[in-house]
Amino acid sequence: MAVIDMLSRLNLDTTVLRTRMATLTQQTTTGLKTQQLGGLGQDLPLALDLKAQVHRQQTYTAAISAAGGRATGTQAALTKLQDVATQFAANVAIKLDPNDPQGIVRAATSAKDALVQVANLLNSQQGGQYLFGGTDLANPPIPDAANIGTSGFATQIATALGTLGGGNAAAVLASAMAAAGSNAAGVTPFSAYLSDPTTGLNEPRRAVPTDDGQVVPYGIPANRNAAATSTGTTTGAWARDLLGGLAMLANMTPANAASQPDFTQLMQGVTGWLKSASVAIGEEAGALGQTQARMEKLQTSQAETVTALTTQLAGVQEVDMAETITRLQGAQTVLQASYSAISQLGKLSLVQFL
Which domains does the chain have, with CATH numbers? Predict the structure, then answer.
């Protein structure tokens, strides 16, 4: 009977060893202490907290990355917009000669094309979202970019230009600036959303969340400045200044040069208007560049945080592989010895019964 009792104990021990070996084998395969969170015991709350932190930080990192892509697209558009403003201020408006009718016609034609180009640039998209549309991501900030030359504000500028003469150059420019600065429906080329004081006209800039309770503004609405402050001859918004100055040039005809002093004075005013736009766009691009640098640093910091949290989580839910393999090998040795002992005891038991 003693032999039989010993065999029973060995069988029980062998069952325990097989269970331990199965667990160790699974651990060496997966690298995890357990595939069920509940199996972590007292470490479960810490593991859940670490997992939540990792997920949250990864979400912020993804958001920053997406915002960085949109900021890059915005920078590209700003570069082209500033090129247009600088070109027409330095090479067109200031150089127009009232005694050169063909030059005036060529400048007007060029300005008409540039006006459409600027409108399309303000309608730039990144990933299907309009970059200059504020939080109205699905709709263009300038709904009819192709026909902006015949929009309400451009028509009002053309009407004011038609009155040039008799020393009223300053008044004509003021009328043009009022038209460019208008938010009235049928006048402004900008969308109803951006022009409405209850929606886009006064909403905060589009921003990206970078951590709990922290956001970084980076959006630039098409119809108002974001970080830049326009000075000099300005409506207060560089996009309106650029569109207005181009609309003025686009509607120029040789007849407007009948009063040369007024024509020259007006062109000086338009040049200042376009220069103001160029300078403000440069400021906007510079401020956005600083924001991009900040986002890059935040993204690096987020990545480092995720790495640290992941390492901490690994310490909670992953096994020490070298130690686990050693324990598995030891269990295999003990199990083989147990099988051998059972075999020998089985032979003894048979002899006794015979």
Answer: 68-304 (1.20.1330.10)
